[in-house]
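re: ur question from earlier - yeah i can do the single chain one, its not a big deal. heres the input i used so u can compare w yours
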Amino acid sequence: MTKEVSGLEEILVNEAIADLSSIQDFIRWGYARFNQAELFYGHGTDNPWDEAVSLVLQTLELPDDTPDAILQSRLTTSEKRELANRIAKRINEKKPLAYITNKAYFCGNEYYVDERVLVPRSPIAELIERHFTPFVLPEKVQSILDLCTGSGCIAIACAQHFPDAIVDGSDISADCLQVAEINRQRFEQDNVAFYQSDLFENIPEKKYDIIVSNPPYVDEEDYDEIPEEFIAEPKLGLVSGFDGLDITRNILSEAKNYLTDGGILIVEVGNSAAALDAAYPEVPFTWLEFERGGLGVFLLTKEQLEEYF
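and the output i got, formated as tokens:
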């Protein structure tokens, strides 16, 4: 029995290993356990059923569209033990599923993640899939910068959707860049380079057609109230001062120097959007809308940045 499981939990896990047999059994059991527990869902799923399905299928390396007939397959004892222990770990440690399976999905691709990086979940994925239209002409985009790249998912997705462009990603955290490099190598994305940099500090002296960023933007009050699942993520990637805007202010003040004429800046600030509007009431932020949900992402052109910052 793993060290994460003890007492009553050990009894329940042993019971599951002894009495359950199929993939479907463990999805049903996981759902029941999750439904009884006080869990928060926000790292890829939003309910206990989808969480159970994801955990079981990801653990068994099965696709999301696994046929029902396969779900009736019997499991080996070692498979049952791993599933039961992972379900117990999700409940006991309040750890995001992505850290348990080391899998997260962004723009249709599976990325490696662990506790060194935030779990990818940005609505910016929709913009990348649309090639940032109608705000740019995709065929004209030659260079993209992803600030605060974390796992590298935004930079790599941009490189995949703009194969003729050069994409740079930066992060202040060396740990994050180790994970980003794992993902770059996994996708063999040769048009991506990563830099350890405090925002623009170590960025090459060049201009970008698009600068995109999902920086830390949680304010102090919100951080004190967030669910345990978010506390499991690195605080450096979440918190940005009293109002959540310390890093965003720095981006706004410097971005114009790194944009081409006609270039655009896109930044996610989430729940700090209202604070940003209040801080800069004269700035005509374009707040973007998303078909799959998400809010707090703004766009400014280089010309607007030059005028207001």
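The CA atoms of residues 106 and 120 lie 7 Å apart. not sure if urs matches, ping me
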